[in-house]
TrEMBL record:
Domain of life per record: Eukaryota
Protein name: PLD phosphodiesterase domain-containing protein
Coiled coil location: none
Occurrences of domain PLD phosphodiesterase (ranges): 161-188, 441-467
Entry-linked Pfam families: PLDc_2
Residue stretches spanning the membrane: none
Protein's UniProt keywords contain Signal: yes
Amino acid sequence: MCRRRGVSVFLLIVAIVVSPALSLSSHSPTCKAWIVQSIPTDMPHLPPVPGVLSTEEVLRWLAGNSTSKLQIIAQYWQLLAQPNDPRSGDYGFSLSDLRRFGASSGLSVYKAIEAAADRNVNVKIVQHSGVYPDYEQESAHLASGRPNVENVTLLLGDWWGSGIVHAKVWISDNKDVYIGSANNDWKSLTQVKEVGIYLVDCPNVASKVDTYVNNLLKLASLNSSLYTRTVWDSEWQSRRKVPCWSHFVALKERCRSPLPTYIETPNVMGYPVISDPFMFKIRIDTPGHNKSTSKESLSYLSFSPPELSFGKFQTDEQAWIDTIKSVNFGGTVRMNTMDWLSQSQYVDQTIYWSSLSSAISEVVFSKQATVKILVAYWGHFIENTDQYLKSLLYSNILCSSSKYNKCGGKVEIKYYKVPGFNSTGPAIREGNRTGNIYPGYTRVNHGKYAVSDVRAHIGTNNLVWDYFYTTAGVSFGTYNEAIVSQLQEIFDADWDSPYAVSVEPLQGA
């Protein structure tokens, strides 16, 4: 197992200004980490967790402190509000409404990126085609007339038949990194519940994520029709499109990967769990937590889809499963997601996906663990989520179903309802007032993370099959005690708030 460390430390001088990086010593390389959160306005019963930074501040710092290079992976761009565009979910809201919503936060982040570009910082953007109505217009404007700004659109559907660039990652000067759930959208800063991690002066972590960025860029430069195959996927029992170097392609028919950093593993069909996934020991100081310690902690990165992994990095699916199974005997696993679906959502042939559900039931039985799951309930809630969640609650019945079972674990599930979730959308539609009190696609718990009593996992993927097998995602995980503790605090604050409502079992169960 390869073990590497960061090289220098970034000192926080005041609450909102970060100083240039300074080296501690060659004997105690340390990076710093903060949990990052967005809390929607008008949630008075959810006090912020002490020591947690705001998403807006962190993104501004990353752009504002960049001196040579800024890399951004984004699904789409809507940092600038569009109240005058009838196609926008912002349409019809007044300037005073937008001030109350905090739309200026998006403008401040956009201006910070623009200022970095004007300082001749090399800005590299990898994105999906964006969303309605203006798609990638903001990033195109950043690149216009600036040779130091590279703006690349990658359509993963050309490679996997469906899927998008869904990762939300920023890297500054090859050492400072944000990984989390926040989109490049003003609403993600003030109207959507987000969770991420901010790693400062961690060049070895940044270099690994940079490799993934380069793999995405290489993919965008290739003609997908020359490098894809439609195969029978025996693991997921479906016929689907994949890159020709995929391990779902029979070995004799598999091509050599064109990605700049990729290690081939022969004689494998599909992507089995790695028994010894790549982890690295790093010293992480956590100034935002009173249990801060600089002792070395095992940490890791995970990626999706599997065909974009490299070296011995685990797939993101495995990282979620291993986090669930890391729970101590009688301990608690906390899981937070926007979407939960034990199947696929976007591919033509529906795929049943029980990976996470099975891991949850296993620790309930074998480790007598409590598993708490918090799922968003919002204006775009997936209809059959409820049935899948309630079937998972049946584990509690099975746990005590036999005299042979020595099972003391349980599953608890709550829906997270951000106030106003059912009153979102444009204020005016076809000339008429809609009665909506918040912009479209807001008022939702959007974080994607899991934390056991020993391990924290913070990512960008919703808990649906497509996100792990056709969608670009990145996660950071660690056994650092302070990060684990603070992530538990964030979850518990949400779980214990009046905004979380218990999911009841199926009738008759």
